[in-house]
C-alpha cells in the first residue's frame, strides 16, 4: 500500500489548543465540514481525508497545532511502549529518507514518566519498523521532517505526527512585537468571543503591536490565517502538493469584498510603528488604522461598537497600585461609550472592582502558562434600521487632534 493510498483513508486528526478555547476550535472544525469525534482539555479530535490536513492548517485560527494520530495503545512498561510503537504502520507515511524526531512528549498520571527515555524508545521503535520495511540498518534522515508527538495519559499512549511544524500562531506577519506579545491564536479567539461583525465599529485602545486589530481585520475579510506561511507537511508525499495547492486556491477565493475599518490606539508611538509594519505584512493595511492616543482620551460618536483589548496587568506592571489605577481609569473612559460591548483579557484578580462594574460573564483562558480571564460586558445590538450608523467607517479612519474620532 502506498502513502497516497493510506492518505485516502479517513484520517484521525487532533487540533491542539490552549485551555479554554476548545469550543471555539470545535466550531472551526465543524465549519470546515469535518466530523468532530470528541473534545478533551486542550484537544479537539476529528475525522477527515488527506485534504483536511492543508485545509485545517490554513484555516484554524484558534488552534495551536494539527496532529495526525497514527495510533493508540496501552503501555505501562517501556517494553510495551516499544512494541506498541513498532506495531504501527509508520512506513505508510514516512519515506526512507524521512527525518522522524520524537519532538514532544507529555506524560500525565502514567507509570512511564521519564520523558527522555520515552522519546528515545519511540524513536528506536519507529526506526526498527522502518528499517525492516525498507531493508536498511541506517537512515540518513536528510529528507522532509515528520515530527512525532507522544502523549501518555493514564497509561494510554497516543502517537501522532505534527503536520504544522511551527505553531499555528505563527501567521508569518508579526516581524515585530511588543514586550509581552499576545499569541495570534488567542487574539483571534478574543475577537471570535466578541461576535464582532464588520458592520460594527471595532477598537483596541491599548493595541500595542496590533495583533488583536490585525486578527479582527483578517476575520472580517475572511482571510485564512495560514495563507502567508509554510507547513512541515507540505513536503509529505502522503498529502501531496496538489492537495496543498487546491487548499490555497480555495482560501484565496474565499476572501470577501467587504469594506470596513478596524482601529487601534496606543500611547506608545514606537509600538504603533511595529503595528503598521505588521499590518502591511498581513496584507490588511487598507483595513486598519492606528493612532497615538492615551486610552483615557478615546472618544467617538459611533454607537454599538466593540472593544477587544489585552491591557497590561500584574505580570507587566510592578506596582499593584499602578494596575488598579489603570483599570479604574479604563472603567471611567469606557463609561463614555454606554452602548458599546467590551471584552477585556487580564490576569489581575481584582479587575472588576477596579474597573467599577461586574462583567456580564467571564471566561477562563490561558495566555501561554498564565491563567487569565476574559471579562465580557455586553452592550445592546444595533437596531436593524440604524446599523448604517454603526458601520466601522468605510470612508474610515481617525481624525486629528487628541480625541479618537471617526468621520462618516
TrEMBL record:
Segments forming domain THUMP: 65-163
Keyword Mitochondrion: no
Keywords: Methyltransferase, Transferase
GO molecular function: RNA binding; rRNA (guanine-N2-)-methyltransferase activity; rRNA (guanine-N7-)-methyltransferase activity
The keyword Transmembrane is annotated on this UniProt entry: no
Domain of life: Bacteria
Family matches, as SMART domains: THUMP
The name this protein goes by in its record: THUMP domain-containing protein
Organism: Pseudoramibacter alactolyticus ATCC 23263
Species classification: Bacteria, Bacillati, Bacillota, Clostridia, Eubacteriales
